[in-house]
Amino acid sequence: GAGMPLCSVRFLSVYAERADWAQHRGFLRTALWLTILSSGVIAAALVGLFAALPGLRGMLGAVAAGALLVPLLSLTALAISILLSRQMPLRAEALGNVSRQALMLAMLGAAMLLGLHLGAADVIWLTVLACAAALALMSAALVPMLAQHWRGPAVTAERSAWLASGGAFLVTTASYAMVERIDTILVSALLSPADAGPYAASSRLALLVGVALAPVNALLG
């Protein structure tokens, strides 16, 4: 989302505290179109790359579903940040993340009970449905909240500061994502994608060890 979701917590909370709704509107509209534009370009480029290379066309169906996740997750991240800027962390987490995971588990459980054999592309499409449902829930919560402040003149005098902060967040987030996934990429390249799947799941479960350490470190700090 061009770094806009993370910037939202910083700027929207300040504008709301000051009751500067013109700047609030300006940031919201800028963040929304930047998030849609950047994620849409990435999704289109992803599909175009796999369509252009003959060796990758066999995965085009799964990639098309995965490409849809890019704008869906970007908009969900933006919606979560807007709720966080309104000091609603529990609602943001419940609507943006917990609902998506719960729906995903429900659909996978139903598929198992029905004896359906799901391939990778099928699971990605289920993820798309879960993300779309979570985004719909977020939108239903946000529209009434923002309706009174959405219409009217918008001020974008601080757009350069928004873009600078967004760029910094984007570089940081991209770097973190690459570091976090480089081991899975290497396992896939050096061994096989079949080995990378269980490895990725196991490495994520191993991160649960840090859940116990985080509050202890916070208290000691």
List descriptors.
221 residues; single chain; mainly alpha
Task: Give a brief description.
The protein has helices at 4-18, 21-52, 60-85, 89-113, 120-150, 159-190, 193-206, 209-220.
Lay out the secondary structure.
Elements: H1 4-18, H2 21-52, H3 60-85, H4 89-113, H5 120-150, H6 159-190, H7 193-206, H8 209-220
Helix pairs in contact: 1-2, 1-3, 1-6, 2-3, 3-4, 3-5, 4-5, 6-7
Task: Report, as a whole number of angstroms, the end-to-end distance.
Answer: 33 Å
Strand content: under 5%
Radius of gyration: 20 Å
Number of strands: 0
Order of secondary-structure elements = HHHHHHHH
Task: Specify the number of helices.
Answer: 8
Classification by helices and strands: mainly alpha
**Helix percent band:** over 70%
Q: Give the integer mean of the pLDDT values.
A: 86
Low-confidence stretches: none
Biggest pleated-sheet summary: none
**What is the 3D shape?**
globular
Q: What does this 3D model show about the protein?
A:
The chain is mainly alpha-helical and 221 residues long. The chain has helices spanning 4-18, 21-52, 60-85, 89-113, 120-150, 159-190, 193-206, 209-220. Helix 1 runs parallel beside helix 3 (60-85). It is globular, with a radius of gyration of 20 Å.
